[in-house]
Input
Amino acid sequence: MAMPFELPHQADGVTLDWQTGTMIGAAVQQSRKPLKDLAGIFRDEARRKQADPDTTVYQVQWWEPAATGSEGGLFWGVTTIFPGRVGEEYFMTHGHFHANRTRAEYYGTVQGEGMLVLMNANRQTWSERMVPGSLHYIDGRNAHRTVNTGDTPLIFWACWPTDAGYDYTTIREKGFGARVLSVNGKPALVPSHAENL
Ligand code: F6R
Ligand code: MN
Output
């Protein structure tokens, strides 16, 4: 007997596992970011170089049901940041502005604990705490980076427009106005000018 709630078959369909933050389906793409691809991103570059360059800092799965750059579409993805540190700085994403500053994004936390670091065009930088269930609206004008401040993977869904694009260069060249560091064993958002005090 057919189940009353049986879903129609979708050849290109993607299934979400809401418990583990996993995307399943032939159309799902994935990438991994090892420490060797994050040169110049952490404060302590010497420490980054000492660590195993193949250590995975984070990985992303995503689905592109519409063409990149096309207007009006949405992408869906999930990022997993593993627990770890480079010196006193927690494992984190590279971070970016959207190339198109009018394109916003949602993040929703699945598991773990962390911080969403946001920076406006004037380099003012602040953070939002990420805990399971927290939903974060990212204004299109603000750069965003996520940081795993816990001992378990930090996993979050993301939904963003197909024509948001990525501006990584501004972050690679200038960074954010603050970093999340372990200070007396606790995560703290430390303004970049105060790092060496
Ligand atoms: C998309 C988005 C996320 C990030 C992902 C990895 O606009 O914000 O899917 O791309 O969390 O971070 P980055 O791109 O900074 O390496
Ligand atoms: Mn983004």
Remarks:
- The pocket of fructose -6-phosphate (ligand 1) is lined by residues 60, 77, 79, 93-96, 105, 144, 146, 158, 160, 164 (CB under 6 Å).
